[in-house]
Amino acid sequence: MTHPTTGDITHRRILNIAIPILLSNATVPILGAVDTAVIGQLGEAAPIGAVGLGSIIITTIYGLFGFLRMGTSGLASQEKGKGDEHELAMIIFRSLFIGMVLGIMIVILHFQILYLAIAIVPASPEVEHLTEQYVRIRIFSAPAAITIYGITGWLIAIERTQSVLILQLAMNGLNVILDFLFVLGLGYGVAGVAYATLVAEWFALVLGLYLCKEALSIKFWLVFHRIFDRSKLKRMVSVNTDILIRSLFLGVSLVSFLFISSDFGDAVLAANQILLQFLFFTAFALDGFAFSSEALVGQSVGAGDKQALRKSSLLTSVWGMVTAIIVAIVFAILGPFIIAIMTTEPVVRMEAVNYFWWVVFVPIVGGPSWFLDGIFIGATKTKEMRNGMIVSFLFYVVTLILTVPTLQNSGLWVSLYILFIMRAITLAFKYPDLERM
């Protein structure tokens, strides 16, 4: 029997979802810094470059499958809102199945993927050799890493973000310990960093399964037909495909931003790379409230509660914009100091400071698009997200064509702003449709 319910949409409830995600996200850059610092103790440049390059390759590959987290979150939160605990369990089984299949495919295709990645990002023979060694080890964590996306999305949907924090802390904590053991203790070098992450990600998968044990305790062989229900599986694939297309267009936008930056010289390219770190930090800071939207909006849609939907959308967005303003103020005060820490090269530092004010307002300009993403993911209106992203990308390209020849790097930043603004406009235009349920 199902019992549709959303519960009270309160500030406390929103913060209970968001704060663990903020803390969880904070551990991500720390791990990258530890990886670099540990391998840096070897006193050679090539291993550092190889770990950096290998990490980018793996992160880019795995990042393409982030749609599994978002799709799972939206679908599961709606079942939670309906009160259908049985179907909620079926979603985690489907997510695990899809994650494992995708991960195994990546392992099978890793030779071709590695060849293509090295061809696109060439380096010295020594760095290429070590990068290949790193990727060949790390790639075997693909089934675990991709499946964890689904587990994370499911936990967010049922508001167990404390479990997400535990999962992230355990995985990254073990990774750090094994970094020291394998690299400095056993002298495995670049391979040691890769093995540390490989073991940590598989450990995290086991822990993630344990955290979902109540749902997974169902004797799945007795409900096999429900797990692979054609209509349900088709919907899950459709939702994830829409999000994948949306993510690809967003990724192409950011990559093209850096590629075009290179036309203005190495100093501008380096400066933009530094400034983009502020953008990524903003995403980490605002993710918590976007995830709150996913969970609460999804539950509201599942329960058919229009008032809860409106209140969830409003309160999560208000909290998100307050956070965005705080982040913008922090950037304005500490930005030049942070830039000085990130680079000692005078010309790069000067270029970064020249364009610094563009990133100060990124949280405020880009915030609405992040929160609306969360709202539409929760409502599983992924076709609207996909179409809105395509329209926004076209506006981004047209703005590049019109502004870059005259404004150069400032034109690039104007184009990025247009991308954010159009993403917000296209989704806001469709928002009233969400309340017609």
Summary?
The protein has helices spanning about 10-40, 45-65, 65-80, 85-110, 110-120, 125-140, 140-155, 160-185, 190-210, 215, 225, 230-260, 265-305, 305-340, 345-355, 355-360, 360-380, 380-405, 410-435. By secondary structure, the chain is mainly α. Helix 3 (about 65-80) runs parallel beside helix 13 (about 265-305), helix 8 packs antiparallel against helix 9 and helix 14 (about 305-340) runs antiparallel to helix 17.
Task: Kindly describe this structure.
- The chain has 437 residues and is mostly helical.
- It has two domains: 1-228, no CATH class; 263-437, no CATH class.
- 86% of the residues lie in helices and 0% in strands.
- The chain has helices at residues 11-40, 45-63, 67-82, 85-108, 110-120, 125-138, 142-157, 161-185, 190-211, 213-216, 224-227, 230-261, 266-303, 306-342, 346-354, 356-360, 362-378, 382-407, 409-434.
- Helix 5 runs antiparallel to helix 6 and helix 18 runs antiparallel to helix 19.
- It is globular.
Features:
437 residues, 0% strand, mainly alpha, 19 helices, 2 domains
Strand content: under 5%
How many structural domains are formed by the residues? 2
Write down how many β-strands occur, each being a DSSP E stretch of 2 or more residues: 0
Helix segment count? Answer: 19
Cα-to-Cα separation, first versus last residue:
22 Å
Average of pLDDT: 88
Summarize the helix and strand pattern as letters.
Answer: HHHHHHHHHHHHHHHHHHH
- Biggest β-sheet: count, sense, barrel? none
Q: Give Rg in angstroms.
A: 22 Å
The class by helix and strand makeup works out as mainly alpha
- In the predicted model, the low-confidence regions spanning at least 5 consecutive residues are none
